[in-house]
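Good day; I would like, with your permission, to put a structural problem before you. What I wish to show you is a protein chain and, alongside it, a tokenised description of its three-dimensional fold. Please examine both parts with care and let me know of anything in them that strikes you as inconsistent. Thank you for your consideration; the sequence and its tokens are set out here:

***
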Amino acid sequence: MGECVKSSNRGRKHQTEIDKREINKRMSKKLVGMFVAVILILVGIFIRIIFILATNGKQYNRIVLKQTQRQYENESRVIPFQRGDILDRNGTILATSKKVYNVIVDCKAVNDIRKGKEGDNVPKYLEPTIKALVKVLNLEEKEIRSKLDNKERGNSQYQVLKSNLSITEKEKFEEYLEKAKTEDSDLSDEERQERQNVKGIWFEENYLRVYPMNSLACNLIGFTYADNMADWGIEGYYSNVLNGMNGRQYGFLNTDSSAKQKIISPVNGKNVVSTIDVNVQQIIRNALEDYQTKMTAGPNGKQSAKNIGVIVMNPNNGEILGMDSSNWYDLNTPRDLSNFYSQEEINNMNNETMLQNFNKIWRNYCVSDAFEPGSTVKPMTAAAALETGSINTTEEFYCDGYKMISNRKIHCAIFPNEHGKQTVGDALVNSCNDTIMQIAEKMGSENFLRYQKIFNFGSKTGIDLPGEHSGILHTADSMGKLELATAAFGQGFTCTMIQEAAAFSSLINGGYYYKPHVVSAITENQGAVVQMIDSVLERQTVSSEVSDIIRKDLGNVVEIGGTGMDAKVDGYSMGGKTGTAQKIPRDSGKYLVSYIGFAPLDDPQVVVYTVVDEPNATDQSKSVYAQKITKHIFTELLPYMQLFPDQEIVEGENEFLSDEISNYGQHLAE
């Protein structure tokens, strides 16, 4: 019985072993099958890769290279050019570009997670970097953290923290870090390690446009916006010349896929040498400031005039020596309106109003504003009549205080009084409207309009400044007898200051019309001349004989009894013409007064033209306001130009700076 049980147990044990062997055999077959399948898949993939490389290998290689190239491009940087300088005629810098730096933070580097002292993962560079920026560069901690903690920009490798950092500030930060590398520094080990953990900060070179003279000649020089763009003044007109071309530093992969770096150097802009003389410009400013000081006590309180403009010009070549108007702003802070409006007014301005106010301040009154010039055009009317043979110098006219034209009474300046008998010379000395209207009538509208064009009225002069206005003239169809009469003494058409100055210069220099200009040369950075901008003689307006006649008559205008005697500088032979234009509406009591003068009389070397638009006075019609400004300018200008007295000096006459100019106010109630 026992034997049977043992035999049965052995049989079951044997069967179990057989079953295990069967299972192992089946598993082995499955494993072999899976292995073979994997091998076949890998072989298939390998064959596919070979096929792809054989057919599209170049395309995929380009994709990989492009992705790698992108990494280098992300690390590339622009190397800015330096905008050229603007200089005055003597080499004084009017505008220049100073190297500054932008503080750049690599957020990814600063936020990098590293093992801390306790073995935990921490942003070990974050706090030391923030501390350095706050301590050394005085940056706001809150602003720094806002950039570093930003979800969108937290991994950015380029964020600007501060612009226009000076080289002194940059060096201060670099010294802060460098001290940690010096063994003999007084830093503790902890402080040294802290500074060594400042990461991800670098400095990007840039240039800041700087105007050393601040507001001097602001409307003439102009200023730049961001990215070296400019619209106003010399900066705007010559912007393409002043601008250069940015360079670039970047990495790339060459044909054998090795990394390379290339630097393309920037091309700096060229310098512009102007015809302007800073000293002349300052002389103009002195006279305008003096006028404003005296005239702000008038009935309008704050403003001495709606606007004032001055042009100082060489009549023999068209060079502008100085140009200014009364809206002065600092070229370094051109958007500061605090000198013109209260803070409450500024706060209430919308964008459109603010832009209009900026344009009003930034524009150059001397070239951009057209107005009725008044009697300063009478010499041109007289010269045209002489040139066409319509009148002669001895012919007499009679002024009875007015002239009836088309059933309208046009007054002379002294109405209800009269000038009586007048020659053309007398008419200029006395600024007689009646006589000038009679002269224009004899000349006729055809000749009058033709000479307006010859003197370049109605057309831009082509001065190298932006925003020039052309003015508006009558046409042959629109000019009747009334229009001819009023246009003869400077009403009914408009012109700019630069048009009047250029036309007048031709009248007193022998008849030669030069294109006015404010730049004489373009130079390289080192001073080598690239281009000379020569004077351009465009036409002859009148003969030298007529020029001599008119110049002599204008000399009498400034003598005792002439309308321009308040502009005369004692000891100098001079000439000039006053102007008073009644503004529209004619019964408003508003006037634009002016004076244009020159010296010396027989050989004019300089012309000064002054316009005062709506002087701050009860009676605005007196040209004395413009004459006093011009006299102040001439008094300082002539000695500076080494033009010396050529007439006998009457003792005491030249003391107007302390006496007569201080008496502007006596004319306020006239």
